[in-house]
């Protein structure tokens, strides 16, 4: 709703009231219509201030409404009425003015922002464009290049930047509403024509066409298949080229296409999924709202390899006190230099002082005696990790949470090395740990709800999207990756090339195909794991060379590693590079003839494989494993899996995550294709459709937000 009052004798004050972010729901929009009418018809009122309650101006349109039938008064005429008013309208912006919230403010004749406010048009991140006049008013106000930047990226700007760009007229450290009222009093009765942004001409550009061509090219490259950024450029182009009314028509037309698109649905789903994962629960009944985290001020990081360094940086940047431990003096010194460099570069980017003093460097594990929480990040070796946990159990003060950054090992085995297994959880960061947003927080059967809640809270504090997951080999992300990679290997055996597989995946929207990713992260990583599992040993030639434990196995990755081809770091992998450490992959004739020989040796007759098959086999195998994870209770819901893939594995955001994507494709189709491929490859268990998928299809393929009900029923029957 919106509340109306009159203050300082002649100022009408309209307060948006719709917690938590004063989104413009139908009720709020109706409230604005009613209160604006009241203010304009009250002869005592000479000017009007619009603000939001609880220090928040407005978070934009109510995103929840987009999924249903939109009712209530539309926003565009409301903003037109405000701009056309014959009394000065002033927006008092505290907290945030985003999307429709900023568009509402742009309809006002003046804008005052609090110094801590953030403003932006983030519609593009929801698969939309600013269709309440934002795409037409912002370029008229701040010029085409700056508007293109804000609208196509959706980035938020600070009040200071907004002032510099000309989005707001004034920034204050004091009470924003008081300052806005003062301004409203001072401009009462003054002419308003020059304050109506829709009447402005876009600041002229010498070469409009080349500019838009250049921007469009850049945006297309960055968007990698997303349609909203393209539509945003087209809408701004209309602002630059057309009179306002025609520009608004174009804005509406473009929005109509986006509004009903699958991409918008996916992006809006992922907005809510991101928030849903913070409301975690476990099969044993622990929940986010009944578990109290303990405050964490001082954290230790054990091991300063690549992961440990990134974790230390992330913690220090969030203002935590960090104790690092690296027993090798030389490694310790190198790490100190590297970490300081990372902190300095990060601080320079953010325009703050580097938090160098937040970190101490130690070679003795005794240094962690008084920390609140430890994150172990030593080499991925169970025996080594067990030793560290035994030591931690002795050295740390009682009550210290002990976390491991393992990417796949059994958290419970590590917990059993300590006297307090209830305080042990996994905190699985993704490389580079100071950049990647994802954190898998892994609870074992003995982890306490408080330990889980504390790790989740710490993740949030350091800016991660944290997802609580159960303990199993590879947890959620890496467990699902296994069938995906396996299919990619099989496709090479059957006739595909790394180039073909990667192209199909990149056209789908991944920034890199699986073979390029494998070259980047190092083929030896998977090789070590396979060797540890007893899979990668040389076998006799013939049939048995491609069978392990009764199932189909491709030794292609092992064979490359045996040749010392570890990817980018050795300059050779699935592709070749100009030098060891080179970054630009190019097709490698050696690999192609090796593959040819390999197929011939194993009697494999290559066939034509198209993009469709690549996508179906790689992605549906991954999705099938996702269903198994849900079945096993390792992830609480499809949103958890999707958020993990969106933030940790480069899944294209406009496809919503693998589980959402399965729903978009249609569960019956996914089931049908898996059945087809399993029939063709009965020695590949990952292709066998799992029970939950079958159950969902049998229950009419409900939408993704209803899957939890089916999962619950399935669990109760098991
Ligand atoms: C044939 C078809 C024709 C089509 C024609 C269609 C016509 C339609 C025209 C409509 C034109 C409108 C144009 C305007 C569009 C928009 O405005 S889109 C929305 C733009 N705004 C945003 O993207 C902001 C989104 N929110 C955020 O970024 C953050 O939430 C925040 C505001 C910065 C606050 O962050 P934080 O403090 O970290 O809190 P959160 O946990 O993120 O959020 C708290 C709760 O608030 C909910 N929420 C936030 N924003 C919205 C919103 N805009 N709508 C609904 N709900 C919102 C969020 O989900 C959290 O909820 P809970 O999890 O339940 O607590």
Describe this structure in words.
By secondary structure, the chain is an alpha/beta fold. The protein folds into three domains: 2-259, 2-enoyl-CoA Hydratase, Chain A, domain 1, CATH 3.90.226; 298-474, NAD(P)-binding Rossmann-like Domain (Rossmann fold, 3-Layer(aba) Sandwich); 496-601, N-(1-d-carboxylethyl)-l-norvaline Dehydrogenase, domain 2 (Orthogonal Bundle). It is 47% helix and 12% strand. The strands form four sheets. An eight-stranded mixed beta sheet has the order 12-11-10-13-14-15-16-17, sandwiched between helices. A six-stranded mixed beta sheet has the order 1-2-3-4-6-9, with helices on both faces. α14 (382-395) links the parallel β13 (373-376) and β14. α5 (144-153) runs antiparallel to α9. The model has no long low-confidence stretch (mean pLDDT 95). Bound molecules: ligand LEDWP2DD. Residues 20-21, 23, 59-64, 75, 96, 98-100, 122-123, 126, 128, 130-132, 255-256, 259-260, 275 line the site of ligand LEDWP2DD. Ligand LEDWP2DD binds next to β5 and α10.
Mean pLDDT: 95
For the termini, the CA-CA separation is: 47 Å
CATH architecture of the largest domain: Alpha-Beta Complex
Query: So what's the oligomer here?
Result: single chain
Residue stretches low in confidence (pLDDT < 50, at least 5 long) are: none
- The total tally of domains equals 3
Total number of beta strands: 19
Q: What is the CATH topology classification name of the largest domain?
A: 2-enoyl-CoA Hydratase, Chain A, domain 1
Radius of gyration: 28 Å
CATH class of the largest domain: Alpha Beta
Number of helices: 28
User: Could you tell me which ligands this complex binds, including any ions or cofactors?
Assistant: ligand LEDWP2DD
Biggest β-sheet description = 8 strands, mixed
Strand percentage lies at 5-15%
Share of residues in helices? 40-55%
Q: What class would the helix/strand composition place it in?
A: alpha/beta
* CATH homology group of the largest domain: 2-enoyl-CoA Hydratase, Chain A, domain 1
Strand sequence of the main sheet, in spatial order? 12-11-10-13-14-15-16-17
């Amino acid at each position: 709703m919106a509340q109306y009052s009159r203050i300082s004798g002649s100022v009408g004050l309209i307060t948006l009231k719709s917690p938590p972010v004063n989104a413009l729901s139908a009720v709020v929009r109706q409230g604005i219509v009613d209160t604006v009418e009241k203010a304009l018809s009250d002869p005592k009122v000479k000017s009007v201030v619009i603000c939001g309650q609880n220090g928040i101006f407005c978070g934009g349109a109510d995103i929840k409404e987009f999924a249903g039938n939109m009712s209530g008064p539309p926003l565009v005429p409301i903003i037109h009425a405000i701009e056309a008013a014959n009394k000065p309208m002033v927006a008092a912006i505290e907290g945030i003015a985003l999307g429709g919230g900023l568009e509402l403010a742009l309809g006002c004749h003046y804008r005052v922002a609090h110094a801590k406010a953030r403003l932006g048009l983030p519609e593009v991140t929801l698969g939309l464009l600013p269709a309440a006049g934002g795409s037409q008013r912002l370029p008229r106000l701040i010029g085409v290049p700056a508007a293109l930047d804000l609208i196509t990226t959706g980035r938020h700007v600070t009040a200071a930047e907004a002032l510099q760009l000309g989005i707001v007229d004034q920034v204050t450290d004091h009470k924003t509403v008081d300052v806005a009222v003062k301004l409203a009093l001072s401009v009462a009765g003054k002419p308003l024509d020059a304050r109506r942004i829709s009447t402005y001409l876009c600041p002229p550009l010498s070469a409009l066409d080349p500019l838009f061509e250049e921007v469009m090219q850049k945006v297309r490259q960055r968007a990698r298949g997303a349609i909203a950024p393209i539509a945003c450029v087209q809408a701004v182009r209309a602002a630059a080229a057309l009179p306002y009314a025609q520009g608004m028509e174009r804005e509406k037309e473009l929005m109509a296409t986006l509004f009903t698109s699958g991409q918008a649905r996916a992006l809006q789903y992922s907005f809510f999924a991101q928030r849903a994962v913070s409301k975690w629960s476990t099969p044993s009944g622990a929940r986010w709202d009944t578990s109290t985290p303990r405050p964490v001020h001082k954290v230790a990081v054990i091991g300063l390899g690549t992961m440990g360094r990134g974790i230390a940086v992330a913690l220090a940047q969030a203002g935590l006190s960090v104790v690092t431990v690296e027993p090798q003096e030389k490694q310790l010194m190198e790490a100190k230099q590297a970490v300081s460099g990372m902190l300095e570069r990060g601080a320079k980017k953010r325009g703050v002082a580097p938090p160098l003093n937040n970190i101490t460097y130690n070679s003795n594990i005794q240094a962690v005696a008084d920390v609140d929480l430890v994150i172990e990040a030593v080499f991925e070796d169970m025996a080594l990790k067990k030793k560290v946990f035994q030591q931690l159990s002795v050295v740390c003060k009682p009550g210290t949470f002990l976390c491991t950054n393992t990417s796949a090992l059994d958290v419970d085995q590590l917990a059993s090395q300590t006297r307090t297994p209830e305080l042990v959880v996994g905190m699985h960061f993704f490389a580079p740990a100071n950049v990647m947003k994802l954190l898998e927080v892994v609870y074992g059967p003995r982890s306490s709800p408080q330990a889980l809640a504390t790790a989740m809270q710490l993740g949030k504090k350091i800016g991660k999207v944290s997802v609580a997951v159960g303990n199993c080999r590879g947890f959620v992300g890496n467990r699902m990756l296994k069938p995906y990679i396996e299919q990619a290997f099989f496709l090479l055996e059957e006739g595909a090339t790394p180039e073909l597989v990667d192209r199909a995946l990149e056209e789908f929207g991944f920034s890199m195909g699986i073979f390029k990713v494998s070259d980047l992260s190092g083929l030896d990583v998977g090789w070590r794991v396979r060797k540890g599992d007893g899979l990668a040993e040389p076998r006799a030639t013939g049939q048995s060379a491609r069978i392990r434990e009764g199932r189909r196995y491709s030794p292609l990755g092992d064979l490359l590693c045996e040749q010392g081809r570890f990817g980018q770091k050795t300059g050779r992998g699935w592709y070749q590079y100009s030098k060891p450490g080179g970054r630009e992959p190019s097709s490698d004739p050696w690999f192609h003839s090796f593959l040819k020989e390999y197929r011939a040796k194993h009697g494999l007759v290559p066939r034509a494989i198209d993009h469709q098959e690549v996508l179906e086999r790689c992605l549906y195998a991954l999705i099938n494993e996702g269903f198994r994870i849900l079945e096993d209770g390792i992830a609480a819901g499809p949103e958890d899996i999707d958020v993990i893939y969106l933030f940790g594995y480069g899944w294209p955001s406009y496809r919503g995550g693998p589980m959402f994507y399965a729903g978009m494709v249609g569960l019956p189709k996914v089931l049908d294709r898996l059945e087809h491929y399993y029939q063709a490859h009965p020695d590949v268990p990952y292709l066998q459709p799992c029970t939950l998928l079958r159950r969902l299809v049998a229950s009419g393929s409900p939408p993704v937000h209803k899957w939890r009900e089916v999962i619950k029923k399935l669990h109760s029957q098991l």
